[in-house]
Amino acid sequence: MFTIYSRCAHSLSFATVEAEEISGSRPAEVLNLVQGKWVGSSNWNTIADPLNGDSFIKVAEVDETGIQPFIKSLSSCPKHGVHNPFKAPERYLMYGDISTKAAHMLSLPKVSDFFTKLIQRVSPKSYQQAFGEVYVTQKFLENFCGDQVRFLARSFGVPGNHLGQQSHGFRWPYGPVAIITPFNFPLEIPVLQLMGALYMGNKPVLKVDSKVSIVMEQMLRLLHTCGLPAEDVDFINSDGKTMNRLLLEANPRMTLFTGSSRVADKLAVDLKGRVKLEDAGFDWKILGPDVHQEDYIAWVCDQDAYACSGQKCSAQSLLFMHENWSKTSLLSKLKDLAERRKLEDLTIGPVLTCTTGMMLEHKNKLLEIPGSKLLFGGSPLENHSIPPIYGAIKPTAVYVPLEEIMKDKNFDLVTKEIFGPFQVITDYKNSQLSVVLDAVERMHNHLTAAVVSNDPLFLQEVVGNSVNGTTYAGLRARTTGAPQNHWFGPAGDARGAGIGTPEAIKLVWSCHREVIYDFGPVPKDWKTPQST
């Protein structure tokens, strides 16, 4: 049985928690939102503080007996959506206004600091990394102020075959939809996908990983103060089994899933292909033959591999160094940069989906490959209170020879994604570029990539023979840090989702509808023709 809640505000008008006061002695609570009301649950899941193991957040999780209100709410939305170009078009303007107000709110130092510190509490990362997430979200909202939401629904017309006939293409909502997002970006991913769904006229139910869902709960409260109708979004906390049951029974017309490939593939089958996916990323970087700006390249490599403790779907997982780079001090610089990272400022921290043992076991398996060696790291963090359900290792790099990587018995092991501060490094000769390109062709996930070179012919060769959906090319190429101003998403998969841009929103959250107007007049000399 649900309990309806109304909680007093804290120092921010929308907030129901103080980010820095959440602790085992002062646990926060996270509620669900359904049919316009915040509700609790008879089942409270306690979340362990990733830094010390205390039970510091209580999440009202819905079980399979409690999903009917969510099913009813989704079912109330027709397939033609809450709004579309022919229905309630004033809502496009309303969402432009909501975006304007929300962008302003997030630009306020007190509000951005609140969300930055709240992200740090549940998904520990440095202040700058957490703030970057808030900044990108705020800039995204700025991008869709004013008329920009209705511009997403821009139609086109084509002249017909005779007087009075015209065909018009429209972007049409799906109606009831679902959004499932992971722990590593508790604000940016759910806000960008949620708002995209709403802009196009859909009614979403949103599920964020319970470990971090408090961030989005607070953001929804902010959006309500900015004019978001409470009935427009449902927000559910549950385990995976319950969410799967909700999807099967509510039958949303489209589900956006960001997370592991295993769950993504299951959902694609369960939901009969009505999905868009941004799943695992085993992301590569190729350093080309031209050596420039060694210190800068080393710094970017360190950021790509180890910022957020490597817990980015875009994190650098495999670094291919041209032999010219092998002759530099790049590896020693990488080691020095990695060893600067410390738990005190969360430039290294807990890994929320891999235990320490799992990561060290993977390291040991790699070191059994002939010619492999530990470059740095490879041991647990020291002097910490991170609970054993999470991982805690030093930033780690293992060298594996290219010819060994390419062997069938090794390839799957080397290209296994470890969602933590872990990368494989190898090198290649001029004559082996084709082998490197064979390696990237054999990989299963094609999210981000970087080709670090200012040699146009080299760039042309690599980009022309690869597929990753978000590829950075040039001296300053990186794999991580995607802002709001360009597409981010995988390629090479018909199910692939994008995020952040008008193109991504239209692809993921709308479909094409053609309306053919044919008013006449019928020619004066028309006669009934012979049957055909």
From TrEMBL:
Domain Aldehyde dehydrogenase intervals: 110-472
Family assignment from sequence similarity: Belongs to the aldehyde dehydrogenase family.
Residue ranges crossing the lipid bilayer per the database entry: none
UniProtKB keywords: NAD, Oxidoreductase
Organism domain of life: Eukaryota
Signal peptide: none
InterPro entries xref list: Ald_DH/histidinol_DH (IPR016161), Ald_DH_C (IPR016163), Ald_DH_CS_CYS (IPR016160), Ald_DH_N (IPR016162), Aldehyde_DH_dom (IPR015590), ALDH7A1-like (IPR044638)
Annotated protein name in UniProt: Aldehyde dehydrogenase domain-containing protein
Lineage start: Eukaryota, Viridiplantae, Streptophyta, Embryophyta, Tracheophyta
UniProt-recorded Gene Ontology molecular function terms: aldehyde dehydrogenase (NAD+) activity
